[in-house]
Amino acid sequence: MTAGTERARSADVCRAVARSAVETTRLLVTGALTAPTGLVGHWVSCDDGSRSLVFRETAVRGRNPADPVVLVVRFRLRWIGRRRWAHAVFRSTCPINTPLFAGSPGFVTKLWLTDPRTGVYRGLYEWDGAERAERYATQLARVLGLVAMRGSIAHTVVEGVDRTGYVDGGRPLPANARADRRAAS
């Protein structure tokens, strides 16, 4: 990739983040952006037998997707290792990242997840439209690249479902999310 192409891609990500931040501000001012607490403390199972704990939720009130998809993003933080206090600091500062995604086209909800045993963080998103979710995940990977361990960032888009099956325990999250699209089975 040329330096010019890299700058163009970085500029695209910056523009997308700026648009999301503006829309997030509008959602906050109108009271449409919420942080429900009903699922905080809930455990979500993964298909490798691990479990992740919901530590935060973000949702846009009244947004119902016409083309529902679930986006699962996975990463591990660089530098902090197993230091509990560092993970606690990271989790407490996560709301600062809300403008990066909440105003993105198609965003509906996000569950913020952590596996305290392995240090893996996940985002379980509901999105309206697979293309929108995929575009966001690609942009997010560039931003996460600043803080995540090399090779740990991955995502999966599952079309035709909402998060219900994952949250109620009927369907495990893809543990080793990868850059692909899956239809609900």
Overall mean pLDDT stands at 87
| Global geometry | globular
Number of domains: 1
- Percent of residues in helices comes to 25-40%
Order of secondary-structure elements: HEEEEHEEHEHE
Computed CA radius of gyration, to the nearest angstrom: 16 Å
Per the CATH scheme, the topology name is Alpha-Beta Plaits
Query: Main sheet, how many strands, which sense, barrel?
Result: 8 strands, mixed
- Number of distinct beta strands: 8
CATH uppermost class = Alpha Beta
Structure annotation, total helices: 4
- Sheet-strand content, in percent, reads 25-35%
- Please state the second-level CATH architecture: 2-Layer Sandwich
The chain-level structural class is alpha+beta
Low-confidence runs (pLDDT<50, min 5 residues)? 179-185
Termini separation comes to 37 Å
What does this structure look like?
The protein is globular. Strands 1, 2, 3, 4, 5, 6, 7 and 8 form an 8-stranded mixed beta sheet that branches. Residues 179-185 have low confidence and may be disordered. The chain is α+β, with helices and mostly antiparallel strands and 185 residues long. The protein has a single domain, classed as Alpha-Beta Plaits, CATH 3.30.70. A hairpin with a 4-residue loop joins strand 5 (107-115) and strand 6. The chain has helices at 3-30, 84-93, 130-144, 164-167; strands at 33-34, 43-45, 51-60, 68-76, 107-115, 120-128, 154-159, 180-183. Helix 1 crosses helix 3 (130-144).
